Amino acid sequence: MTVKVVIAGPRGRMGTEAVQMVANESNFDLVACIDRKIEDAKIRNYPALSDLKVPVFEDPEECFHTVEADVFIDLTVPDACFVHATMALQNKIRTVIGTSGLTNNQIEELTITAKNNQTGCIIAPNFAIGAVLMMLFAKMAANYFPDVEIIEKHHDQKLDAPSGTAVKTLELIKENRQPKTQGHPNEEETMQGARGATDEGIHIHSVRLPGLVAHQEVIFGGSGQTLSIKHDSIDRKSFMSGIKFAVEKVMEIDDLVYGLENILDN
User: Does the active-site annotation cover 154?
Assistant: First the structure.
């Protein structure tokens, strides 16, 4: 079976890789792209799209009503992604979301939309299989090490902080950890923000620098020992196997799944 795919955000760093991945997969067929800045794409004669000769739509609704598609992949920004994904699900087009920064309310609304339309949707804070394993290992470690901090590092063009991966890691750790205040009870920040963001006593630190791609370290501390669980994506190609996997899996489900870890063994 050939899966017909639409991609939103084809000119971004992730989108460029996704376009090429879909084009190179024998069982995938890229049938269209959605680009809110289509005129710029024409002016620049963007090669990733012009070489493939697929239609590029500025209006997502027009795309979903015009093109026959099985799966929609969104790699844009949160507000646009939410609009795109809602339209796709309402048109019964299965959806894979790699856009980071969706709010809990947006995820909840997409969950309802997917269920009402009996149309599969996968939201993945991180498509790198190694990163998913890192999150699962951190959840496991939280049973034994309640003192933990998360350091995530990304390129300086990333819009949200902390990253979706860090937030998902936090959620998984909290499933196995009771709320706990870490550090000295009289600890004081002499410079605001020095200890990062906190949730149930867990500190999260976000680093944004040019030259980085996507990196995270989860550090657990115990009596006389520390445990570090670390993952580095040094190239965006690391995410493509996860996107491919999600596209294949979303064809088998009729509701929303948040996180690749929930479908790895299914």
Answer: yes
210 is in an annotated binding site: no
pLDDT digits (tens, 9 = 90+) for 114-132: 999 999 999 998 899 999 9
Residue 53 is a catalytic residue:
no
Neighbouring residues of 86: CB distance < 8 A, sequence distance ≥ 6: 109, 110, 113
By CB atoms closer than 10 A (0-12, 13-18, 19+), residue 192 is: exposed
58 is annotated as contributing to ligand binding? yes
Mean of the per-residue pLDDT values for the chain? 92
- Its pTM stands at 0.83
Structural domain total, the chain: 2
Amino acid at residue number 230: K
Residues 139 and 36 in one domain: no
**CA–CA dist 213, 236 (Å, integer):** 7
CA distances from 29 to 3, 18, 54 (A): 6, 12, 10
Residues 91 and 179 in one domain: no
Catalytic residue, chosen from 4, 115, 158, 174, is 158
Domain that includes residue 136, residue range: 129-234
Using an 8 Å Cβ cutoff, are 218 and 229 in contact?
A: yes
Cβ atoms of 77 and 101 closer than 8 Å: yes
What pLDDT was estimated at residue 43? 41
Options 139, 154, 215, 231, the catalytic residue: 154
What is the model's pLDDT at position 256? 98
Give residue-wise pLDDT tens across range 53-87.
Answer: 788 899 999 999 999 999 999 999 999 999 999 99
Asked if residue 125 belongs to a known ligand binding site, the reply is yes
Residue 86 marked in a binding site: no
155 marked ligand binding residue:
yes
CATH number at residue 176: 3.30.360.10
